[in-house]
Amino acid sequence: RTNAATTVYQEAAKNRVTLINASYLKPATYAWIAGLLDSLYKMGYKHLAFEIIGKSNKPIQQISLKDGIFITEPAIAECIRKAISIGFQVISCQPDYSLQKPNEIHKLQAARLGEYIQAQQGNEKCLVITQPGNNALAYGDPEDVPMGVYLSAWLNEKPASFDQCFLTENSINEYGAFLYALLQYKQPVFQATIPQLNGKPVKALEEELYTAMIWHPSPTYTNNRPAWMSLQGWKKEMEIPAAFKNSFLDRKSTRLN
Predict the structure, then answer these.
(1) Which of 18, 132, 186, 222 has the most CB atoms within 10 Å of its CB?
(2) What are the pLDDT digits (tens) for 161-185?
(3) DSSP the chain
(4) Residue-wise pLDDT tens digits, 58-73
(5) Region of poorest pLDDT, from 32-36, 153-157, 245-249
(6) Kindly report the CA angle at 192 between 134 and 152, in degrees rounded to 5?
(7) Residues 6+ apart with CB under 8 A from 107
(8) CA angle, residues 216, 220, 223, in degrees to nearest 5
(9) Cβ–Cβ under 8 Å, residues 126 and 49
(10) 240: Cβ–Cβ under 8 A, 6 or more apart, which residues?
């Protein structure tokens, strides 16, 4: 086992593009990414592309509902706000769902993203956050080739790519959920970890879909709130002074009384 963040940094340093998947159904995955942003920015990652952000022709300066329904998830919104505050150029790489075939969707998505990456000057790098599976660098179904495969071909380079949704609580399918429960029962982890076998990252399937899989710990709670909601310590708890203990929200005026 190795520390997941350390492995991501090591691989990111060797590549111009790094792909990490995350799921709006698992906001902890976005919270974990938020914890990587400061270090990745210092490593030259100045651009951050999100699939979940609504289509936009230019980097966003602040988020709003026009950027898509997923922005309403607090952990996702805070991850994007943090990226903007650090200095990232935050862009949308949302697929064009008006197309009918998955391969057409992913090929066009990769081409647009690839053009954006190629247009950047100097040594600026790009971090790309996709939905689960779309950052894979190999495929089993020729009718549904992931965007990661097309992007790798378009750039003529193999980016680093990480899965962090499979080895999570409840996973993304029944096999993953069973495997995660078994691993956490036998050899639990307490921080994001890269499982290894003979010194190499473990593959869940025969295909080498990703650079590595990230194994997340079971959630812990502080004051009935998941610990990951601190976004790796970026968000701080605020104690409400006793003087405000009788404050309440007026439903009619939606103001604090």
Answers:
(1) 18
(2) 999 999 999 999 999 999 999 999 9
(3) -EEHHHHHHHHHHT-SEEEEE-BTTBHHHHHHHHTTHHHHHHTTEEEEEESSSPP-SS--SS--GGG-GGGGSHHHHHHHHHHHHHT-EEEE----TTSSSHHHHHHHHHHHHHHHHHT--TT-EEEEEE-TTTT-SS-S-TTS--HHHHHHHHHTS--EEEEEEEESTT-SSHHHHHHHHHHHHHS--SS-EE-EETTEE--SSSS--SSEEEEPPPP-EETTEEGGGGTTTTS---PPPGGGTT--EETTTTEE-
(4) 899 888 888 888 888 9
(5) 245-249
(6) 25
(7) 145, 150
(8) 150
(9) yes
(10) none
Contacts of 77 (CB under 8 A, 6+ apart): 63, 71
Residues 6+ apart with CB under 8 A from 82: 34, 37, 231, 234
Q: Which residue has the tokens 């790519």?
A: 161
Question: What residues contact 69, with CB distance under 8 A and at least 6 apart?
Answer: none
Query: What global pTM score does this model have?
Result: 0.88
pLDDT of residue 196: 85
